[in-house]
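Team,

Forwarding the record for the chain on the shared tracking sheet. I've put the sequence and predicted structure together so nobody has to dig through attachments.
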Amino acid sequence: MQTSAGLEAEIAGVARVFEAARAELGRVLVGQRAMVDRLLIGLLADGHVLVEGVPGLAKTTAIRSLAATLDLSFSRVQFTPDLLPADLLGTQVYNPREGTFSTRPGPIFANLVLADEINRAPAKVQSALLEAMQERQVTLDKTYPLPRPFLVMATQNPIEQEGTYALPEAQVDRFLLKVVVHYPSRDEELEVVARASQPEHPLGVVASAADLQKAQQLTRSVHASAPLRAYIVDLVRATREPGRYDKKLAAAIEHGASPRASIALDAAARAVAFLSGRAYVLPEDVRVVAPDVLRHRVALGYDAEADGLSTDAVINRLLDVVPVP
């Protein structure tokens, strides 16, 4: 049985690989460290990531570059109102000469899948994607397992809503994290413009799919103490019973997060600790990732909108009032 010191040494060694991946991504990305870290957390915790931001913020570049750095297969699907499930999953192709059908896999069969503007696709496509995200499989003529590791990064444009379909609550809940990407700073944008005229250099490969699967196993071995697990559960339950902690928030939340949020917060906090080279979770690990885990799982009521409260403001208030172990 591996000792705690041995586990920490192994985690610290593997975590350095991901630090090297960050450095490699820095050759093509300016800023956006938070988005890159959340993608790594999603991979380590074996979850999916929903990214909200206006076009032009390097979302596609980030996941494509991450796939190259980790030697993972990558595919991009532009979601449109006329997209069909077969365009995503694949289909059966008839061979008239032999009188047989063969399976042609769709773009979903990749390690990293970018679902661009996911809210532009109709319900049938969303339903097909939901099975792939949750079950890690696709059903055509039979059930086909998806490659591992497997992560869907979906993007949404927060500004343009014409011709979009609201994501079903069941699907939104399947995303481990919802990340909000903001504009770069002035200095970062100057660097972006300077790099735009320079030739692109191929990214170096710092890890493989096998290395990532080993890192996922180590992430699950990161220790979360009983008081820390209680803190995670209390945070999630506070979204359902906010009046216990702050009477002003009692009518602000229409419905809170489900137990799936507690599982997601635990897994994401372990990944944060892993990336820090630690074999144990700290309360700060939970607090760092809590907004990304909860913002798409908490629905605000009319009172919050009338008071000008955002979901992030409500979550930050709960982080302030729920006792930290």
